[in-house]
């Protein structure tokens, strides 16, 4: 999971548990998501990279591109 790219489908931010969709195991799956830095807000549609995976369905992400 670590290093895979995904797209935010539910806003991620302080006090919010967001959601991302990631292409994995030949399909696309949704995961609960938190910002890796713990303080940033990441809006829907943003491309992110998984930096940590906590099984079964939680990931920590960071923006894939500075924009």
Your description of this structure?
By secondary structure, this protein is mostly beta strands. Helix content is about 0%, strand content about 55%. It is built from no helices and 5 strands. It has a 5-stranded mixed barrel. The chain is globular. The chain starts with a strand and ends with a strand. The model has no long low-confidence stretch (mean pLDDT about 95).
- The radius of gyration over CA amounts to 10 Å
Structural class: mainly beta
- Terminal CA distance reads 24 Å
Query: Which of globular, elongated, flat, extended, rod-shaped describes the shape?
Result: globular
Q: Walk across the major sheet and give the strand order.
A: 1-2-3-5-4
Q: Segments where pLDDT lies below 50 for 5+ residues?
A: none
Largest sheet geometry? 5 strands, mixed, barrel
Percent in strands? over 45%
Question: Could you tell me the number of beta strands?
Answer: 5
| Overall mean pLDDT | 94
**Helical fraction:** under 10%
- The helix/strand series, from N terminus to C terminus, equals EEEEE
Contiguous helical run count: 0
């Amino acid at each position: 999971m670590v290093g895979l790219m995904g797209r935010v489908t539910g806003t991620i931010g302080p006090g919010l548990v967001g959601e991302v969709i990631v292409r994995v195991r030949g399909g696309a799956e949704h995961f609960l998501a938190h910002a890796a830095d713990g303080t940033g807000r990441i809006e829907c549609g943003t491309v992110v990279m998984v930096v940590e995976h906590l099984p079964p369905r939680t990931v920590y992400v960071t923006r894939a591109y500075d924009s």
